[in-house]
Amino acid sequence: MSKLRFRISMSLDGFVAGPNQTLQEPLGVGGERLHEWVFPLEAWRRPHGMEGGIANESTPVMEEELANIGATIMGRNMFGGGPGPWNTADPWNGWWGDTPPFSHPVFVLTHHARVPLVMQGGTTFTFVTDAIESALDQARRAAGGKDVALAGGARAAQQYLKAGLVDEAQLHLVPTLLGGGERLFDDVNALGDLALVKTVATPNVVHLKFARK
């Protein structure tokens, strides 16, 4: 069976997004600092349709993170568009433009039904309203034997962690403090069967990989 592989950047005080998240500032105040380590990487820029970039100690981590992924699961906040029912007059199509960087099926956890959204480049967003297990089952079928990425945000990750459904977790620990926002491990008091299997320390981020024992 394919693995569910979670990955996210986190501050030293445990936040994966800063306070006061809005449509204009989706990562909250200071939240972009969590991702400054990855923006210059060629391995990150290429899937986003950008040229250039650098290679450093984080490059193999990013390449491994992107390898063998056939589908992605994300929460409503990560897809965006604000809370509540979808705006049918001015529909929200995500943060990534007409050609999102996924190039595979993406399943969005939401309380509000919406027809699938087909984008350029092979990405289709499917909106799942029944359960996290249903989203995982659909993602695994769509992945065709490849692994499924769990992209966040915090509340989606918490649900899968508490249910014991995560097979691998890649935490990118960034040496910054946000002081508020969305804390990853709120209401999650154990990693269950996940154990630390790899640490890669760099000047800008420490990569911590956990996997089932």
TrEMBL record:
Any GO molecular function: 5-amino-6-(5-phosphoribosylamino)uracil reductase activity
Pfam families found in the cross-reference section: RibD_C
Domain Bacterial bifunctional deaminase-reductase C-terminal: 3-207
Signal sequence, renumbered to the chain: none
Gene3D superfamilies noted in UniProt: Dihydrofolate Reductase, subunit A
Organism per entry: Variovorax paradoxus
Protein name (record): Deaminase/reductase
GO biological process: riboflavin biosynthetic process
InterPro entries linked: DHFR-like_dom_sf (IPR024072), RibDG_C (IPR002734), Riboflavin_Biosynth_HTPR (IPR050765)
